[in-house]
């Protein structure tokens, strides 16, 4: 069997997968987030390591650990940790991909025109979500003169790099995760000296880049797994979900709904998508590229509102009204991601009346997810051609109201994967290829059960709702509302 570990923002999951591709056991360990200042989001690297051990132990409880022939790993991506090479001790917190403490520095760099270089080389807009400015912040606070970095005493890495160091030593990073750091020449697949100089990151502190299929260090210290069990796949979580959809086939567009949301489609690296990121989805024999749009607050919006009113996200969704009655919630808690990339945008509730109650707010929270996803899908469509079907996965997709709302808002068929834990499954699929359990053709032939949602809203109603949403977006961005034909981008938007 194969073991896959999916290290996410709010939890670490482990799944055991048999030869048929079925999940036969699961384990889970919840994780916390710290918000020491407004806009700051931190996690503990040590807690993440312990959560991996805990999730694996729960998953393999009562199972034959000796039957595990390979391990796959999927991880949250842009989060960054700094640690001592000799001791493995983290220096300071892990800065989450949601962290916005570098927004002011990001604005300053944009004003110098650096955004053009960053986008051209890394494929990513200059934005606090990515790792490069987090690297500068950590080094400025824990190695301000960069002396320890230049001597090779410190290691900077994303979550995959951190976990691989704990598994078996060494300082490695998988190419797809490296492509999210904003320090990589995305087409050359190597650290770029111009970006390292711009962000003040010595190359001695960075990991060695390896393909998604390795080679990686073997497992160590994760009981009851046997030490020496091979790790044969590492992927970013959104990339792994696309792989689980067999997303290497042309025309596949998937949306992973989680704390945030990732909308992704395989694309030629020469393809330009305004407001979208060019990223490496995975590398086996050669790199596979994708265009992606990242939404910062999807499920996090429901979690925030539920905590505010003292309930759970599931209960909140269950009381949502059939209509928001004109209420809009723009969840720009840390600015807006794709396709706007506006870290100055503010969270906004608009359209409130004396008749507004929790059911309308709950509906507005659900609508905010569907609207944001459709804005990115529309940008992908402009770059790659007609998108008729959206493949959906992730925890929030179990909400049928949200999935029908997505179909109505998009005017597209939505196919929800009935299999859970697609990021973990994708890592297991690639890991299985690494140990000879499956070929790519075998993976294409796997049965993928899906639940289909067809749009039921007429075009005029859909267009009216989208126009009202974009008006609310313009308010959140401090801009006058523009006509729909001009939606999305302007000359100042990276």
Could you walk me through the main structural features you see in this protein, from its secondary elements to its overall organization?
The chain has 494 residues and is of the alpha/beta class. The chain has a domain of 234 residues: ATPase, nucleotide binding domain (Nucleotidyltransferase, domain 5). The chain is 35% helix and 20% strand. The chain contains 16 helices and 22 strands. A hairpin with a 3-residue loop joins strand 1 and strand 2. The longest helix has 27 residues. The radius of gyration is 22 Å and the shape is globular. The relative contact order is 0.13.
| Global Rg | 22 Å
Shape: globular
CATH topology title of the domain at 2-235: Nucleotidyltransferase, domain 5
Helix content: 25-40%
Read across the widest sheet, the strand sequence of neighbours is 16-17-15-14-20-21-22
Q: Give the count of helical stretches.
A: 16
Give the C-level CATH assignment of the domain at 2-235: Alpha Beta
- Low-confidence sequence ranges: 484-494
> Helix/strand-derived class?
alpha/beta
Q: Architecture of the domain at 2-235 in CATH?
A: 2-Layer Sandwich
Strand residue content: 15-25%
The number of strands is 22
Largest sheet, strands/sense/barrel: 7 strands, mixed
Q: Mean pLDDT, as a whole number?
A: 93
CATH superfamily of the domain at 2-235: ATPase, nucleotide binding domain
Separation of termini? 45 Å
